[in-house]
User: Which sequence fits this backbone?
């Protein structure tokens, strides 16, 4: 193939680069702005400053929001992963009437717009006197995060040799022992990955949490509050820190999900 | 499969079912119920009252918002799909396995950044005195108004959906049979014609599903319309937050929410039907 091929490929590469620039410019921008003295940055940029980090460091409300976020995130991760593991194993092992309903119920939450989820949760939880509590955020995030946990663990289970379970049964292991000594060890990387990913999803979720959290705001809800107020580069500082913590979780998950064959290559 | 379920299988399968029935399906059904309730003295009372439906659906404000949201979400889905396709094509057909895996990892990263923070950052980029206009200023152009209008909203929605659409398109293109393309080339089918006559039809389902996800996400998004579009005139999701947060009119918010869900289900059904049409020919 001649010259045309090279030009086309070059243009395609350029296009990908532009797409990535478009996607990552706001993320990178937020980092840069967080370390910039200007309240409203433009070109040329102002000078280097850690002022915004100092402000959030000294803000007790930010710390309280951070504490709420961590409590919610840890609890949600455990709940969503337990629920997701059960669902993934059910899908892997059993066939039953109504299975498609079961799976739809398990996987659909992420497709419902968050404002609608938020409103439905708020209406329901306030009826049972739970709205405005941290528990309500945990409940809502449990619904939204368990599909991710289920998908990750299900994917891992599908890589398992089905004879493994049968072998364990043949050797006299009952279902519980098989679960304990065969399936959980095999699914372990995916279970940890699910914990990290669901925690990261919960860390960044603001809309439903905003509807149901009342005064027990998580950090992302605080950011929403800042956005509604006047311009505040503190958002960039909080966002950069949140990004770093989410990325740490994702990279840990990614390392866990890598199969041994990949490591060799 | 007439066996009775064992205790073991119930303990594993039931928690998720109960959780999602109680905290997901039931609240959504409850939303339908409260759309018929009445509000007196800021308190909701159980009732069978079509007043909320009548009030919302007979107002021009609602239908204006409805069509505005439709147009914005459709435009965002179309533009995102068009921008994404060359990128997905390049990733799927031109990259090594290793590079592909890296691209996928890179494209997953945005899902774990706060959308709010990105939108706030976009405000800084797009405002009249912002970064983009400063760049235009250096070459003697602008300033162009890019914030508090439809342009800002669409940019925000593309930021939200582009990574997902590229990923979904790439996955569907990965499944296109490479022999078909080889055959097309052997038959002297031109490069561009191969793309439109062979690749796009083979990957049609995935491409439509990707656009559908972009539509769903944009349709329900309230952050871009509010913080990049200025929030006025409102979209449907802004109406919901307004009704809920300031107006204490939960029943009316429920009516808007149900209209949104019905619309999304209709669009999803139409898109899936279209995607699978003529496949068996």
Assistant:
């Amino acid at each position: 193939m001649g010259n045309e091929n090279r030009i086309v490929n070059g243009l395609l590469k350029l296009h990908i680069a532009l797409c990535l620039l478009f996607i990552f410019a706001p993320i990178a921008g937020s980092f840069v702005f967080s370390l910039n003295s200007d309240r409203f940055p433009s070109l040329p940029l102002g000078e280097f400053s850690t002022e915004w980090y100092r402000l959030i460091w000294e803000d007790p409300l930010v710390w309280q929001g951070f504490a709420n976020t961590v409590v919610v995130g840890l609890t949600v991760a455990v709940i969503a992963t337990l629920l997701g593991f059960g669902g993934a194993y059910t899908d892997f092992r059993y066939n039953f009437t109504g299975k498609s309903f079961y799976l739809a119920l398990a996987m659909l939450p992420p497709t419902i717009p968050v404002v609608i989820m938020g409103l439905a949760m708020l209406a329901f939880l306030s009826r049972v006197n739970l709205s405005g509590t941290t528990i309500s955020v945990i409940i809502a995030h449990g619904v939204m995060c368990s599909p991710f946990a289920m998908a990750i663990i299900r994917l891992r289970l599908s890589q398992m040799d089905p004879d493994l379970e049968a072998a364990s049964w043949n050797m006299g292991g009952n279902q519980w022992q098989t679960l304990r000594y065969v399936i959980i060890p095999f699914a372990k990387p995916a279970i940890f990955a699910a914990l990290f990913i669901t925690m990261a999803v919960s860390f960044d979720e603001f809309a439903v949490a905003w509807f149901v959290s009342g005064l027990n705001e998580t950090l992302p809800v605080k950011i929403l509050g800042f956005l509604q107020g006047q311009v505040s580069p503190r958002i960039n500082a909080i966002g950069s820190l949140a990004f770093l913590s989410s990325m740490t979780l994702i990279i840990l998950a990614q390392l866990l999900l890598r199969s041994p064959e990949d490591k060799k290559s | 499969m007439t066996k009775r379920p064992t205790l073991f299988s119930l303990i594993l399968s039931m928690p998720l079912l109960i959780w999602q029935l109680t905290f997901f399906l039931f609240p959504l059904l409850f939303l339908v119920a409260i759309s018929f309730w009445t509000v007196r003295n800021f308190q909701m009372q159980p009732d069978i009252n079509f007043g909320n439906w009548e009030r919302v659906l007979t107002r021009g404000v609602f239908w204006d918002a409805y069509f505005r949201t439709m147009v914005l979400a459709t435009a965002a889905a179309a533009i995102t799909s068009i921008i994404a396709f060359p990128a997905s094509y390049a990733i799927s057909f031109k990259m090594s396995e290793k590079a592909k895996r890296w691209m996928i990892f890179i494209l997953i990263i945005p899902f774990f950044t706060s959308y709010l923070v990105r939108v706030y950052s976009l405000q800084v980029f797009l405002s009249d005195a912002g970064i983009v206009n400063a760049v235009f200023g250096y070459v003697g152009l602008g300033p162009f108004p890019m914030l508090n209008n439809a342009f800002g909203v669409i940019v925000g929605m593309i930021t939200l959906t582009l990574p997902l659409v590229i990923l979904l398109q790439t996955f569907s293109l990965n499944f296109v049979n490479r022999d078909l393309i080889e055959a097309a080339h052997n038959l002297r089918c031109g490069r561009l014609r191969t793309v439109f006559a062979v690749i796009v039809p083979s990957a049609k389902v995935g491409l439509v599903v990707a656009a559908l996800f972009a539509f769903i996400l944009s349709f329900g998004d309230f952050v871009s319309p509010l913080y990049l579009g200025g929030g006025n005139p409102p979209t449907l999701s802004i109406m919901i937050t307004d009704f809920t947060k300031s107006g204490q009119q939960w029943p009316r918010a429920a009516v808007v929410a149900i209209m949104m869900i019905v619309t999304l289900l209709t669009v999803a059904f139409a898109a899936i039907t279209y995607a699978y049409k003529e496949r068996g020919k």
